[in-house]
Amino acid sequence: MSEKYRVLVDMDGVLADFDTRLVELWKQKWPNDPAEKILERETFEITDMQDFTDNVDEKLKEIYLAKGFYESLKPIMNGLGSTALKQMVSFGHEVYILTSAGSKAMYAPTEKFIWVRDNIGSEWVSKIIVSRDKHVVDGDILIDDKPNPNGEEKGAKWEHVIYDQPFNRSVDNKRRITWKNWEDILPELTDQ
Q: At what angle are helices 56-64 and 18-29 packed, to 10 degrees?
């Protein structure tokens, strides 16, 4: 039997489609803004987009701080992520969902638990870790779409494997996965 790993998986942008829902709601509220640019951005932070629209930060907060936002996210790739998580567990690995929620996002933690229950399964609710600083969570691998996850610079013990998104394609010094190719990119998780 091969070595067993502790795998930490980010939620927003990895399991739950944050950006698509954000754009849908943005277009409803501000139809004259070029909201589609969010999906094609080259920077993680939407507020760093050049020549996008006025009052970006306020508009973002109006959407993602609203009640119901996180609960309404769709699974990425039709839920392939939840299948991958379950496969990792079947190979004997410890798998946790490691997510963060800003101090002003009062609905986010509860809605993320609901989202996991409804989209991955109630048995996964006990496998959610909410931490603003991901380096304090011990693990072997962190799958995250953020180019530099919070805490990485503080000597995190996990290897950051980047979940492919348009805004992180400039990162070329890390392994890169999607839920379609995770078994090829992380063979140590499937070797029995």
A: 110
48 is catalytic: no
Alpha helices in 36-142 (DSSP H): 37-40, 56-64, 80-90, 108-119
In the block, residue with structure tokens 């909201």: 35
Q: Confirm if 22 and 64 have CB atoms less than 8 A apart.
A: yes
* Tens digits of residue pLDDT in 119-169: 999 999 999 999 988 888 999 999 999 998 876 667 788 999 999 999 999
| Residues 85 and 9: beta-carbon distance below 8 Å | yes
pTM here is 0.94
132 shares a domain with 54: no
Q: Where is the domain boundary, 27, 51, 71?
A: 71
Residue from 10, 19, 33, 144 carrying the catalytic annotation? 10
Q: Would residue 10 show up in a list of annotated catalytic residues for this protein?
A: yes
